[in-house]
Amino acid sequence: MVCLATLQLNVVDLPDIPFGSVSQTGIAVGDTATYTCDPGFDLIGSPTRACTQTDPDTADFNGQEPVCRPQCEQLLDIPFGSVSQTGIAVGDTATYTCDPGFDLIGPPARTCTQTSNGGATFSGDAPTCRPQCERLPDIQFGSVSLTGIAVGDTATYTCDPGFEPVGGTPTRTCTQISPGVATFSGDAPTCRPLCEDPPEIVSGTVTPTGNSVGDTTTYSCDPGFNVVGTTTLICQQVSASTAEWMPDPPTCERITVRFALPSYTFTESGVQGSIDVIRTGVPSSPFSIRVTGGPSTQPNIEQSAPVINELITFLAGPGAPDTITITFPLTDDDVALEEIERFFVGLMVENPDRVTVEFGSPEASFNESDGVYRMCIVKDRETAQRVTVQITDTPGTADRNQDYSPVPLRLVSIEPDNLRTCFTGLIIDDLIGGEGVEFFNLNIPSPTQPGVNVGLDITTINIIDDDVVTVVMVRPTQPVPEVSGEATVCARKDIATAGPVDAIITTSPGKAADGSDYVGGSYTVTFGPEPNAIACATIGIVVDGVFEDIENFDTNLLPPGTGNVVVGPQDTTIVLIDDLVKALKAQDSLIMTIPSVSLVFH
Questions:
Q1: Where do the Sushi domain residues begin and end (predicted)?
Q2: Cβ(36)–Cβ(47) under 8 Å?
Q3: Distance CA 459, CA 387 (A)
Q4: Is the pLDDT of residue 111 over 90?
């Protein structure tokens, strides 16, 4: 069909579209309609439509009517960041990014969305760029742990073992201080060295307040001990990495209380005694001991009355007295003018502060008269057989003449189930008054090894003084009576050996004033292989016709080598034993080595 130019069909004008308008060239076939949108809107569809004849009697604009869809505005960059848009039409997106050193706060993307009133806008709000904090370094002798570097994140400091944080802030928070600046709050701490645990001291305690620089440690001593040195130490820093306790810790010195010998003077009508209690060491605090003593229960000895019961207190400090004297009355036994006036005080000590208590050796003074002295021997345990000890006392050592009658030889025996026996000796006055102390010597025989060997029992013999005389111990001699006979000298090896062991025993001549009483010579003996085997040699005793007070001889053991007998890989010790008493008095047999001699005073 050919459209005639003069043909006009029934075509109406087009209406405007929402948010836009239409402009037509006419309504005849071939005319056009052009659509435009208002500002802020985007045309969706064809902007032009043509009038087209659809049948002989009808014509219409072809296509569909476009629509005007709103547009979003062009977004601006945000401070310390930028925005990138795919467009401004509905459905387009805008993506935000922050400059280095800043964190994006808020959604990073927005979408252009049509509103209910026909407009369009980007969804949500624009995000912001918030500054980050710088990453913190570790500190000396420590480290830092970060939760992050954004505003609100924290940094926590810890120190290496042996150090503690000082100053600054242990936990710092990243804080924004201006639109473009953020920093961690506060200052970093420093790590300061700690002191090690303070050293312990012997016989004392330590009480620290802590191990930090400036902390103190206090030392104190156990009861019975005194602090020597500074009691308070301070933890001081000596370098960036070291702290030490200064000064050096003190030591604890034992406080000793010594009971001096009783001193006393008396007549037959009355007696007064006293004992000095002497402190050594300076106590840091006062301490007390209670001294008690009961009356003697020994016959013919003055009695202490009343019973001693005295609490004595030593004060603290270097200027405090170091001696306290205890005095006590004694009641006479009413025996007139005994040869010796004696008393006995049995002291006991209650010692709650646990100081060391020592009792001194006795001193004594007595009337210048004839009399007797009394001595005792004590063994430390029961034995399988009788123990016999030879006692020799020498003349007294007064200024002139002799106060004590010498006893050349005394055999004192203790039965197996007894621990103590006593003996007496004569005191012959030399008529010199006021000597104060009379002396005599006590000698114990033959001793080449400590202790007394009785069968399988090793028994220690102690000499005790039950009197008021001073006992002076001298080296023991080996006395025998002036008779002819034989003496036996034995030796013992200490362990089992692979076979018999030979040794040589020699004896030297005696040393009497007019010649030798003993035949010198060498004797070969053989030990069996069993442990503690004993071998003996018999030597002759020749009477020289002179009755000396004490006959002496020497015995020497000369084993091969330098004191030990070597049998294969075993070292065997040969020990000399004195069996001389058996030759003198067979019923009182004794195998004896050197006793451990000590004085026990009662």
A1: 70-131, 193-254
A2: yes
A3: 9
A4: yes
Q: Which CATH number fits domain 20-70: 2.60.40.10, 2.30.30.90, 3.20.20.370, 2.10.70.10?
A: 2.10.70.10
Q: What is the per-residue pLDDT for 349?
A: 60
Instruction: Provide the whole-model pTM.
Output: 0.42
pLDDT tens string 512-533: 333 435 555 666 777 777 877 7
Alpha helices in 53-111 (DSSP H): none
Fold of 142-192: Complement Module; domain 1 (2.10.70)
Helix (H, G, I), strand (E, B) or coil at 583: helix
Q: Phi, psi at residue 584, to the nearest 5°?
A: -85, -40
* Phi-psi group of 30: left, alpha or beta (phi > 0 → left; psi -120 to 50 → alpha; rest → beta): left
Is the preceding omega at residue 306 within 30 degrees of 0, hence cis?
yes
Average pLDDT of 40-57?
88
Contact present, 423 and 412 (Cβ < 8 Å):
yes
Cα–Cα distance between 579 and 290 in angstroms, integer?
49
Domain locations along the chain: 20-70, 81-131, 142-192, 194-254, 256-359, 375-602
Report the CATH fold assignment for 256-359: Immunoglobulin-like (2.60.40)
pLDDT score of 552: 37
Give the residue-averaged pLDDT of 582-596.
26
Phi, psi of 183 (to 5 degrees): -150, 155
H or E element in which residue 581 lies: helix 580-584
Burial 204-241 (b: 16+ CB within 10 A, else e): bebebeebebebebebbbeebbbbeeeeebebebeeee
d(CA 590, CA 593): 10
* Confidence class for position 344, pLDDT limits 50, 70, 90: very low
